[in-house]
Amino acid sequence: MTKKVQAEEKELDKSIEFKTFSSLDIKEEKSALRDCKDLTNKALAGLDLSEEIKVVKDLKLGDTVLVKERSKITAFAVSRTGPGTEGGSKSLYVKFGLASRQISFRYLIRAAEALAGAKGVESIEAGMNLGRTEAYKEMLANDFKSKFQGVLMQRPNHAG
User: Which residues make Cβ contacts (< 8 Å) with residue 26, sequence separation at least 6?
Assistant: First the structure.
């Protein structure tokens, strides 16, 4: 799904508590990676994006936005932007995003919009599983448009 970045979104939204992984110190990085691993492991046993998060930071391929609620990360998105990345120089490409609750997903969208504005890109691109109906509705409500649709044979709203 794609969304054009609006001029008013180029300002960071102060009402949402989020940070980028690249802005953290070493101690905060370790804690964030642990929280992200806990979150992904709840979604799918064994899923760990720690290396992806570190590589994106170390190679300056983009950044990871982290949404915190009550000192715990409840949502995050690994994104790529810049020459030589999936996003290129004009787009923020969300490679992976996950939220523990619907409201956290809403905050994650706002955080991605703020990061896109800070990076000076024109659009945000993100893959979306249409089987995740609440997340899909949230994306539509936030002016994302479908750019490409693929088909995956799957039981409704269940992994498998």
Answer: none
**Backbone φ and ψ of 61, nearest 5°:** -95, -5
Examine the pLDDT at 39 and tell me if it is beyond 90: yes
Report the predicted TM-score, pTM, of the whole model to 2 decimal places.
0.84
User: What's the CATH number of domain 2-141, 3.40.630.30, 3.40.50.9100, 3.40.720.10, 3.10.20.30?
Assistant: 3.40.630.30
N-to-C CA span, the chain: 23
Burial of 53-88, coded b for 16+ CB within 10 Å and e otherwise, reads beebbeeebbbbbbbbeeeebbbbbbbbbbeebbbb
User: What share of the chain in percent tops pLDDT 70?
Assistant: 86
pLDDT of residue 13: 47
